[in-house]
Predict the 3D structure of the following.
Amino acid sequence: MNTKVWINKRFVDIDKAKISVFDRSFLYGDGVFETMRSYAGIVFKLDEHLNRLFASLKIIRIEMPYSKVQIRDAAYKTLKANKLKDAYIRVAITRGEGRFGISYKDKLVPNVIIMAKHFEGYPGWMYSRGIRANVSKIRQNEHSPLSRIKSSNFLHYILARSYAKEKGYDEAILMNTAGFLACAATSNIFLIKNNTVITPGLDSGVLAGITRGVIIKIAGGIKFRVREKTVSYHELVNADEVFLTNSLAEVIPVVKVDSRKIGKGAPGRVTRLLHLAFKNAYSRSSL
């Protein structure tokens, strides 16, 4: 079957899915995106993803040519066109084709692209054994609006993970410019300490992750104390448990940070409990 890509209200075969080399997303990373996951043909938290997407567009001043309802409909049409049920979906918006130079005087026409591919989750060993993470020397700028949106300019996350992989780790963790915990390369981060669920506050330079929000709600609902706060490196490496969250991975346990074993060096009880509760949330419209 030839994969279909939705570009500006029409489907094209994947080998014909092209935009101009003068598109500002290609030239300067001038655009935003969202990644989502569907389970049994239902896109999990689609409305929340679209709300965040449109908020990001407002921040970077791109005027979206389609409504949320149209993009919602297009996402499901993309699943249907590719005969997908369990899938990864990516919605990307670029500022459009422009001239050389970072300034733009003309009213540009954004490109909107929706792609989908079959996806059943990350490798099982990540959940059964946990992953190892390296705290990167690359810092997250908590003062930048880009720290709170999914910008097409992803280079500092790419470099952070690349450096971590070169050292033999699975993932990179970024501190912010003040020296406090921010996030992982593609995930939010949580700690468990004395049965308290802790995650960096949004003012630490953190994306308001959709899965992050679900986990906070789940944890509070099962009577865990939940704190959003500044988190030091000392608190991170001395946590009882650490885990990462994003829409594709769901909940990934971290069992080692730098040279320090986290807890017993195995996925913890609370992490497993929250991941199970998250899986149960797929069909619960209240979350």
User: Anything to note?
Assistant: DSSP finds eight helices and 15 strands in the chain. The longest helix spans residues 46-60.
